[in-house]
Write a structure and sequence with these properties.
By secondary structure, this protein is an alpha/beta fold. The relative contact order is 0.22.
Length: 128
């Protein structure tokens, strides 16, 4: 299943754990194919550095390299939200969001915004 993962999900996974961490681990195991543009990767890196510096968070470094090495890098094809644009370029169906309201973003016919809980439920169904 092809997905694009919002920065807040990555931050939650790397600093807090829980279900976001399990989503990232699913990417590392190859259960999810995660796509990103260079711009998204730069946003991930900047956000991780900022949280690590400002909040003194405890980074789960054992996730960082395995996750980033599994990302499929694509070039965005359209303007607008960078996550939806990346999903369109990758042919991904879902943008996994971390709780902020992305519902206002115009979703394409082929791109859906889904929560961490929603994608986890889909993974559970696929495993049956």
């Amino acid at each position: 299943m092809k997905v694009v993962i919002d920065t807040n999900v990555v931050l939650s996974a790397f600093f807090l754990g829980g279900l976001p961490q399990r989503i990232i681990e699913a990417v590392v195991r190859g259960q999810l194919a995660a796509y990103a543009t260079r711009e998204i990767v730069e946003e991930y890196e900047a956000a991780i550095a900022e949280v690590g510096t400002k909040k003194g968070g405890s980074l789960r470094e054992n996730l960082a390299l395995p996750f980033t090495s599994r990302l499929h890098i694509v070039a965005p094809r359209s303007e607008g939200d960078m996550f939806v644009s990346c999903a369109r370029a990758a042919g991904a169906v879902y943008v996994v969001e971390g709780g902020e309201d992305l519902s206002a973003i115009e979703q394409g016919r082929r791109v859906k915004i889904i929560t961490v809980e929603g994608i986890w439920q889909l993974l559970d169904l696929c495993a049956l």
